[in-house]
Amino acid sequence: MQQATSAPSATGVWFVGARGSVATTAVAGCAAVAAGLHPPTGMVTETGPFADAGLPALPSLVFGGHDTADCPLPKRAEALTDAGVLPHGLTRAVRAELDAAEAEIRAGGPLPGDRRDDEELIASFAADLTDFRARRGLARVVVVHAASTEPTPAADAVRLPPSSLYAAAAIRAGCPYVNFTPSTGLGTPALTEAAASRKLPHAGRDAKTGQTLLRSVLAPMFLQRALPVRAWSGTNLLGGGDGAALADPAAAAAKNAGKERVLADTLGRIPQGQVHIDDVPALGEWKTAWDHIAFDGFLGSRMVLQTIWQGCDSALAAPLVLDLARLLARAHERGLTGPLPELGFYFKDPDGGPAGLPAQHTRLLSFAERLKAAAPQGRLSRAAR
């Protein structure tokens, strides 16, 4: 997948959090699918409606990124294999691609004791991006923020949060940007304006991979069937890095805001009930989410729907990351700029558009048709081959 010299049409995918579970799974998974070792399960961009939308082919993706962790990517992949996330034998089969991506990972920040100010950090991160693009001969680089959730910054904060430093660097380097997390990222007026002035497409924030995905399906059902929801409560049990990061109440609050927004936007209000997030290290890379929904039926009859979602977050997230990187790359190639509400299908806190998943999917398919215009020949995705 990754070669010493990339083809001029190759596309860079630069992960913030490049040695994390999501990025590692995405890199290994992309290599596996491109080599025909596994099917593209969970990748919407590998389905028929996107076949001739001009998306960059999976083998043309070149990976790099920033991270403050120092565990090499192949070792991280081995740990994910031991955790049951990656199938046995895959790390060995795609070792060359993991090594190539590892060689393109640069030190993130700010690290403890780092004396650089915001401007110096942004300049350093942007230089890493422009060097990656020029050295590998890439047509463009899409920056995907997939690092751990950070707390919402205080209103009087003097410095930008790390996610916004990376977002500012992406803008400066002329890179399309995806915020896959609830962290601030481009979510400041100055950075949104800067992205607009550079005419860059961007999308976010906070991808929905489990509990909120299910909420975005169920909430429209209750609304469309005229069944009033009285209360909607939820509990999440998380292990791994997500569980540790969300043990911080401020980070959990940032995460829960998106879960509440799905209900508020769909139902027109937030029902009674809260979402709780518990760190359970023994679960490792796996998570369990429970929802308890109390609603009214005909003649005031009281009813309840309960759901249980159990899954591996990085395996749910990785195909979405690859989808978004390809969609943003094609949008940039087509000259689309600004926020892309058509990609609300992927996010808890999208850039406008409908709230329910069915309506969001319809809009995403319309976006695919829009991308097809002037699609260059010879650039077909796997679904078209």
From TrEMBL:
<dbReference type="InterPro" id="IPR002587">
    <property type="entry name" value="Myo-inos-1-P_Synthase"/>
</dbReference>
<dbReference type="Pfam" id="PF01658">
    <property type="entry name" value="Inos-1-P_synth"/>
</dbReference>
<dbReference type="InterPro" id="IPR036291">
    <property type="entry name" value="NAD(P)-bd_dom_sf"/>
</dbReference>
<dbReference type="Pfam" id="PF07994">
    <property type="entry name" value="NAD_binding_5"/>
</dbReference>
<feature type="domain" description="Myo-inositol-1-phosphate synthase GAPDH-like">
    <location>
        <begin position="210"/>
        <end position="314"/>
    </location>
</feature>
<comment type="similarity">
    <text>Belongs to the myo-inositol 1-phosphate synthase family.</text>
</comment>
<protein>
    <submittedName>
        <fullName>Inositol-3-phosphate synthase</fullName>
    </submittedName>
</protein>
<dbReference type="InterPro" id="IPR013021">
    <property type="entry name" value="Myo-inos-1-P_Synthase_GAPDH"/>
</dbReference>
